[in-house]
Amino acid sequence: MEAYGRDVAYVHDMGHGDFARDAAPGVLGLMRRAGIHEGLVIDLGCGSGIWAAALVDAGYDVIGVDQSPALLEIARDRAPGAQLVQGSLFDVKLPPCSAVTALGECFSYSVDKRAGRPALAIVLRRIAAALRPGGLRVFDVMTPGSEPESGRRTWSEGPDWLLCLDAREDPAAGTLTRRIAVFRPEDEGYRRSDELHRLWLYSRGDALADLDAAGMRARTLTGYGRRVRFRPGHIGFAAIKQ
Prior knowledge:
The chain has six helices and 13 strands. The protein is of the alpha/beta class and 242 residues long. It folds into two domains: 6-144 and 202-241, Rossmann fold (3-Layer(aba) Sandwich); 152-199, S-adenosyl-L-methionine-dependent methyltransferases (N-terminal domain of TfIIb, Single Sheet). Strands 3-2-1-4-5-13-10 form a seven-stranded mixed sheet, with helices on both faces. A hairpin with a 2-residue loop joins strand 6 and strand 7 (161-170). The longest helix has 16 residues, at 18-33. The protein is globular and about 55 Å long.
């Protein structure tokens, strides 16, 4: 499985960055309502740094983590005030912090072969250990029913890119597969980049049980503020360390 190579990283930032951009005010609101107005925030799966930059601008210290060198290259330009680390969210060092976020299905992705519910439970316990009392955990995952039974094919485009997507669920395996083809201009033709993204599907009950086992009081979210409402098969969580 590819982890956002150069072309897919570029398209992700240019064509799909609105999710993080629109989510930022809502997640900042969650943090402030939890009494977190300063301190260190760890952004797992920071991508191209849109949310990390919003945190820096809001006065927080930020550590961003991502496995994609191409995404981190973009993030370093966008959020120079954040500390950015290449690595897996499953074993990156988590220093004491006020909040941990993972926006955009990061825990569902199986870029790391250890991904899956057992690994998620371990990560949630590690996060709980890093959070100060009253610290906040915010994340979203994919759940069963995110795609039609027959699958979905679609495309999107920008001034210098075209993305084709084939998305299909495997209910027996509890996974979602996205086959992605990106076309970008090169010389007098186009360069094609293909990636296969496989995501684990988590149930609401399982995620809540794992958060409870990690010592966190959790609630589900239907979106991140007014600008981001989750579609069917996509759910968020906000959890406070007790």
